[in-house]
Amino acid sequence: CETCSKEEAKYRCPRCMKYSCSLLCVRKHKLAMSCNGVRDKTAFVSVNEFTDLNLLSDYRFLEDVGRTADAAARHGIVHSPATKRLLYCLRNKARGRNIELKTLPVGFTKRRENSTTFNSVENKFYWHLKLIFPHCHAEYTLKGVPDDKTLADILKPYIDPVESDPVVCQRLKIYTASPQSDVRILMKIENRNRNSVRYNELDASRSLLDNLKGKVIIEYPTLFVVLKTLKNDMVVLGQDGSEPAENSDSESSSLSSVEEGEIRDS
Which residues lie closer than 8 Å to 89 by C-beta, 6 or more apart? Predict the structure, then answer.
């Protein structure tokens, strides 16, 4: 058992392949690893390990995708004039702030969960925001984040050793125990080839709006919080020695790969 290291393992998690000996250890492992126990249907399988079961799984997955896409196309809200006006307004207001906001069709995961709004009276966005802490396998969803709030203030309830919630602080203790100077905030650059994934490093002292300017956003921003002292596989544009730093809106790749990934998520 990879949780208690005492008993013989009887179960294997379909999601992360961790071995457990009992229901108690299964629950502990799910809590510690933020694992939902659901098999990842899109996980990579090498050709040598590919079996008839994998083929059948892929076939059923594609059938599910087809049904989901068909249901989304038939959904009445897709053709609602009010919905189209709202999305047009959001994209237009974002464009006026030098942000290229792209929206996905109804039925896509990010489209369903996006709660971003624009307040015409205050003349500012209230963003749906996702924070991912890779070193702790944790992620949090924030709603109604004003665009004039600095990233440092956004992160305070999570990684500040004094102001963070005790439960969250315990879960993210590797962050709260590290100097604030070690914290890096990254955002994936959209519209790039899958074999050339790059990230922009954001400035924690500046507002969310300032950091999003000149960027391409698919529905809502997703921020990755990493530590300089710990190894990660995220390549920051301009720091990999092969490409200069530049704004993400200069990328010219198509959106199809992003949409394909969203279809898989839905």
Answer: 118
- Is 39:14 a contact under the CB 8 Å cutoff? yes
- pLDDT tens, 114-168? 899 999 999 999 999 999 998 888 889 999 999 999 999 999 889 888 887 788 8
Same domain (yes/no): 107, 206: yes
Q: pTM value?
A: 0.61
Q: What are the CA-CA distances from residue 50 to residues 15, 38, 258, 264 (Å)?
A: 17, 20, 25, 19
Q: What's the structural domain count of the chain?
A: 2
Q: Look up the domain containing 29 and give its range.
A: 11-67
How high does pLDDT run on average in the chain?
A: 81
pLDDT cut 90: percent of the chain above it: 30
Q: CATH number of the domain that 180 lies in?
A: 3.10.20.90
Sign of CA dihedral 212, 100, 220, 229: negative
**Distance separating alpha carbons of residues 54 and 248, to the nearest angstrom:** 36
**Do 103 and 162 fall within a single domain?**
yes
Helix ranges (H only) for the chain are 23-33, 52-74, 81-96, 109-113, 151-159, 166-171, 173-176, 208-212, 256-265
Within the chain, what is the greatest distance between any pair of CA atoms? 62
